[in-house]
Amino acid sequence: MALASRVERIVASKGKKIVEIDMRKDKPDREALLKLLLGPSGNLRAPSLLKGTTLIVGFDEASYSRLLA
Model's pTM, two decimal places? Predict the structure, then answer.
């Protein structure tokens, strides 16, 4: 949870669903963040990547291409 408080944006992919959160404007509650960031084991979902002030969780090829270009 400390990691989420240090970033400006979170891009989370779960299946075909992609959720983008601007942490400066949107203030999701703790439970909503945990559902996005943690897998069934309770660990941070993989793959997870921190690029600058953006945290990318889960894999979506289009998101990675856009954010890593």
Answer: 0.86
